[in-house]
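User: For a benchmark we're assembling, each entry needs the component sequences followed by a predicted structure for the full assembly. Here are entry 17's components. Please fill in the structure.
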Amino acid sequence: ERHRAKRRDGDREKKKRRKGRRRRASRAGEREDEKRAKNYQESEGRERDEEEQAQIKTGKTAKTKKNIKNEKTRKVEQEEGEAEERNAKGKKKHGSAKKEEKDEDGGKCLRPESLSPEELEKLKEAVDERKKLIQGLRGKPWSMKKKLVTLRESQEFVEKYEGALGKGKGRKLYAYKVMMAKKWMKFQRDFENFKTACIPWEMKIKEIESHFGSSVASYFIFLRWMYGINMILFGLTFGLVMVPEALMGRPYGSIPRKTVPRAEEASAMDFAVLWDFGGYAQYSVLFYGYYNNQRAIGWLKFRMPLSYFLVGVGTVAYSYMVVIRTMARNANESGVGDDNSFNFSWKTFTSWDYLIGNPETADNKFASITTSFKEAILEEQESRKDDNIHLTRFLRVLANFLVLCCLAGSGYLIYFVVRRSQKFALDGLDTHTWWERNEVNMVMSLLGMFCPMLFDVISALENYHPRVALQWQLGRIFALFLGNLYTFIIALMDEINLKREEEKIVKFNITTWEASLYNSTVSENSTGPPITIQPADVPRGPCWETMVGQEFVRLIISDTMTTYITLLIGDFLRAVLVRFLNYCWCWDLEAGFPSYSEFDVSGNVLGLIFNQGMIWMGAFYAPCLPALNVLRLHVSMYLQCWAVMCCNVPQERVFKASGSNNFYMAMLLVILFLSTLPAIYTIVTIPPSFDCGPFSGKKRMFDVIQETLESDFPAWFSKVFSSASNPGLVLPFILLMVLAIYYLQSTSKSYKEANVELKKKLQTSLLQLLMCPCQAKRGEQEEEQTSSAEGTDGPRGGQKSCITDCRATKEQQRVTTRPRR
Amino acid sequence: MGNKQTIFTAQQLFDRYRDLAPQLVPLDYTNHPDVKLPYELIGSMPELKDNPFRQRIAEVFSEDGEGNMTLDDFLDMFSVLSEMAPRDLKASYAFKIYDFNNDDFICKSDLEKTLNRLTRNELTEDEVRMVCEKVIDEADLDNDGRLSLEDFQHMIVRAPDFLSTFHIRI
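Assistant: Structure for entry 17:
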């Protein structure tokens, strides 16, 4: 019996094929056949695999897509392979469980020749009908007993009367193909599993999301994304700049730029100096000044200056690309799964995941369901609020005016303070008090602390939806921080100019020093040994690029420290105090004044964005910055995840973060643009230092490109390039690009409108077709009556009125046809 | 061909059923023994014990409506809840599960119970009421203030998550 079952198996496969089922999704089809090719007994385990496979394969696409795919494969499998399914579910069928029997059982009862053609036809029909019944049996909501009985009867019938329906084909090749397909499926599935498992911190973020809602989780998702970008930047700078110089460049101490000057040698190893990135840290691959301007280094003939320049440009280009691509992708996705018509129903009936088998996960799920309901309720309430539109508008204008005053005030204050500090610097720093010396920093920190609170208070006037209010808050604090950025850059430019003045003096001094050396050697009859100067003793120019790099690194470090300390004190200490002092305090600390802090999404997001801006600005002058940032983000992730779960409470009004996250991306793009401007300016206009860095000795940093073109590429190449930079070519090109942008913009607008139209059409036609009960009933009635008695208007008109009644408003009177109860 | 039934039963599902109460369930099912496992055993299965609707699931699939399941019921339950079951089948059983009072309609009280189970009573009464009203608003097509099977199916068929969440793997 089992033997025959196996043979029937193979035969069935062929029959399936011949029946043209392969025309369906070939992958699913193959899976079908492959399933059939196996033994029944292990169908259970296999089926599990298939389920996993279906799930995992689609696991990474968007939710809607995933389920549509699942549906499709499921449908196909349903139609094709219930047999397996049925077996696996261990119905007490007798052996064959040949769902779709096309057993060519040679020696069965009937001989086809004994029947006349019409009888053959009828028999075929009957057999087909039975087969259909067997196929659809799984979908019928009957009790098990009834299903089993029907199944057995139909199977017996089909077995008896199947008869000669097909011949077998070559089996071996087919089995081999099926096996290969199966192995490939398995490999793909494992690979998908692996890829999903590689996404870091997924569980942490899920946990946070379930407790705190999607807006807090969106910060962490943003952090993780930034971590990814910084890893790539780190890879670029580390692999293409730092490592080649460290391995193939000249070692420490061989040339002046790579050596700590004699004067500083004593203190070069001090921790304080190192913490400040002076001493040995300054004269290492971490900073610009260490790099040698030798054109090609090592046995690879690695073009170090070229690589340095290109990596600098490449990091910026890559960042632009990634940010814009993410924005585009978010914009696309936001249109897809936008069906809000059954929001609450779906939340109620499809949010519990029946697969959960672990109490902790269940807890998380309960929390997340509750949060999601609260979010949806909030959205609903917000949308229902009808307010006095004029009063609201007036209040909003007033609020914006106040905020503008604030920003203008702070901008002026910063400007004033910077001027004063420049005056102080001219006077000499020692004659002033501590406050006057650190005035700029203090003012900026104080502004950064108090203005956001002020903005928060002002925004209470505006009465926006919390998500919109968050965006306004973010925008305003952003404008405030721009002031900080502006002062920083001004200070930096001043320092650069100072250093360049110094450089001129040093250059002059060096010539006199060399001359004195030369004179002293000549005076010794020129037979003495040539004097070797220790690199440490050579007078050094002030390397402004390294200075810039150091400034950035110090800024990042102090920023990081400030963040962590505020976190520990502001959140953790506060939580500890509230928790333990509550036992012996007059009023309820937890509900009343300090209570636990909420996670400050806007502050943290802005911190992250500005931090990244600093990295972009400084990465050219301090190749170690991306590495530092990777480390910092890594630590931040763990620290903040812990702090959020431990010390924060969810916000009172939990709102859903805008799914697209495009707001953060937009701010990031602005910062990217703003931070690359100063870097580009310095690269293009300021000549590099004469004795440090990979571009020393050139007139401008980008001359390295020119040099490469001339020496490394064939002659016609540089001719082409120089002719391409002719303004006569460049201007029309720019014009063309502007036109292209305009054209693309207008076509995209028209596509969007067409999309909306199609959606509407789809909805109304689906509604018509599917499940309007009165229409179905009416349709049946119409069919029973004369087909065209009332012409085309009758049924159609009936349909229309039925639909409007059904769907439009709930307050309309009942539909004329009686509902089906 | 009745004897063949035992040989081709999916061994694993049967084993799971039997493991719940080895002393009650015989190894040989050829004589169709009438064995029912009480609900407490079913509800303590690891796949079901964290599910807030486990009692309803057992009641819907059991013959006697009390949650005591025979092997047939057991197999039926996991068949419907498997990934392969067709959507309409799942929808009709889901409807039965969420219909707490078994009157073939999901009325407001059924919705309230569902919601409270889902959120472990963390929503306020006002919120629960609001959500129930919204659900009836969205899904009730024939305006009788409660969801019939057709309303429910119409709504659930469009849900992107239904198939993946209404799924138990065993």
